Amino acid sequence: MKRVWKTIIPLVLVLSLLLTACGKKAEVSKKEDKPKEETSQEESEDKKEQTGEIELPYPKLLQKDGETVGGTLNMALVSDTPFEGIFNTFLSENATDMTLAGPICGSFLKSGPDHEIVDGGYCDIEFNKENKTATYKINKDLTWCDGEPVTADDLIFVYECIGSKDYTGVRYDSDYQNVVGMEEYHDGKADIISGLKKIDDKTLEVTFKEFYPGIMWGAGLTYDPEPKHYLEDVPLKDMEADDKVRLKPVSCGPFMISNVVPGESVEYVPNPYWFGEKPKVDKIVYKRANPDTIVEALKSGTFDVVDGINVDSYQEYKDLSNITLLSNIENSYGYIGFKLGKWDSKAGEVVMNPNAKLADVKLRQAIAYATNNEEVAEMFYNNLRIPANSLIDPGHATFWNADQEGYKYDSEKAKEILDEAGYLDVDGDGMREDPKGNKLKINFLAMSGGDIAEPLAQFYIQCWRDVGLDVGLQNGRLIEMNAFYDMVQKDNEDIDLYMGGWATGSNPDPSGLYGRKAQFNFPRFATDENDKLLAAIASEDAIGEDGIDYDYLLKAYHDWQEYMFEQVPVAPTHFRIGLTAINNRVNYWDLNTVSDWGWEKVGLLSDTPEKAK
Fold this sequence. Notes:
By secondary structure, the chain is of the alpha+beta class. A hairpin with a 3-residue loop joins β14 and β15. The two termini are 31 Å apart.
C-alpha cells in the first residue's frame, strides 16, 4: 500500500511524521480477518465497500489486465502554493513533501489490518516484550540507488540525527526518548545511543525503557533509513537546505529522483539497483496543479492520477467517462475545539483554567448537540463526510466504537441543557446570559482557505445562535492558516471555540493529542481520569505472551472514547471519505491498508491518456 501517516498531524498544517507501508510480524491474539475479494470498479460498479459500519461510494481497488507500455505516469499535486521540497524523512514536516517522497521510499515497513507493523516490507521487525526490544531485519538485497547496500548503520544514522542536540525537527519526542540511551545522547552525556545494538550489517536491535503497545505501531521506531554514507559529511544544521536533500537525494525505493523544478515538479526514474519487481513505467512526474483547474485537467487527460481529490467539486468530475474513482475512509477527523487552559512550557504540560469561558461541561455539551454536522455533510461536502461520533476514527476499525451515539444534532436537547444549567435569556434580546446573569459572548476562531470556508463558519455560528448562544468570528474574520495554528498553539487568550482537524496516523493511541504532556493537546484538557484512561491504553498489560491482547485494548479504547464523549473537550464533526481519480489507462491502484501495492506495480495500458467524451 501507499505511505500512510505515522502519527498525528493537523489536517491543513502538517506538523508530524510519515509512515511507509511497513514491516514486521506482530503476532496477535485477534482472529485473522478473512481475505476480501478483490473487485475492480469495472467488474462491479455499483458495489459499495464497507469500513467498520461506514459504506463507501466507490471500491478501494482498481486492477486491470493487459500488457503495459512503459511511458510516463503523470501525477497531480493539487495545491495553490509551491511545495517546499525536503526529501528526507526525519527533516520533512509537511504532507506535500511526504507525498512526493512516496516513489523513492516505497514500503520499507508494512502495515497490518489495524495499521500495526507486520512482515512483508523491505524490512521485518521482530518484537520481544520480555527483553523490551524491536529488531530490524533488512532485506539482504535492499540497495541505495548509488549502488551502496542499505545497512543497520543507515538506521542508526537516523536515530543519531533525531537525538542530536542540533536537531530542530518534530520527531524527538517521548517515544524516541523511550529508547534506552537516547536522552543521554541528546544531552551530550554519551557518545552513542546505548539502546541501539548493531547485530550485523542488516540487523539492528533497539531496546526500550518501557515496552508499550504503541511500539508495535511504530512508536520510537524509524520507518525509513537514510543514507549515512551520502549525508554524514553534511552538518545537521545545514542538511535541510543542502542539494543532497533538496535536489539529488539518494533513495532505496523502486524509483529515484532524476529532476526537480523547485516548488513545481519532481521527475522520477527507476532505481537501477532496485531488488524487487521491475517498475512498469519509464518515468513518474509529479506536477503541481491548481485546485481551480484540476477538473479540466482530468477531462483532458493531463493527469493519470489525482490522489485525494477535493470533494468540493465532486459534482463536476463524478461522471467523467475517462476516469475511475476509488474511495477509502481516511485516518482523520474534523472537530470543534474548546479552549480550556494553557500550555505550561516550563512544566511541559497542560494546565486547565477553571474560569475558562467554556469550562462548564454542560455548555460544551449543548454546543455539541446544536452543531448540525449532518446538514454540513450534505450542503458542503456532497455527503462525502460522515458525521463523527468519536475521537477514534473508523480507519482504526478495531478500536473505533461504532456503537457510540455521539452528539447527533438535537437543538431542542441543546436548549434543555442550557436551561437546566442556568444559561437563560435574562434581558430578552434573544441571546443567553451565563448563570450569573452576565453577557456571554463566545469567540469562534476559523481558518480561511477555499470557497466554502466562510459559509461553513457562518453556518456553524448560526447553529449556535439558533439555541441562543451569542457566537461570532474572532476579530470578525477568518484567519490565514499559519496565523490560525500559531494562535491556537500559543493559546491566544481571546479564543473560546475553534475549528480544526487531525490526521491521526497509523498509531491509534490518542495520548499524543490528548495527554497531559502533549503539546498538540490544543484544547488544553487534562484530568486525573483522562490520565488513567490513557495510561490503560499505553499499558504493558495490553501485550500478552502471544502479542497484542485485543480484548484488553478494545475495552481501554472504548472506555476512553466514552469518557471523552461525556467531557467533550472537543466535539468531533466529521470523518472523511477520501477519493482518488484515475485515468482509464492506469492498470492498478489500491487504497486498502493491507495490500501488496507498490509504485513498481503501477503501469499504463496505452501510450496516451484517455480524454473525457
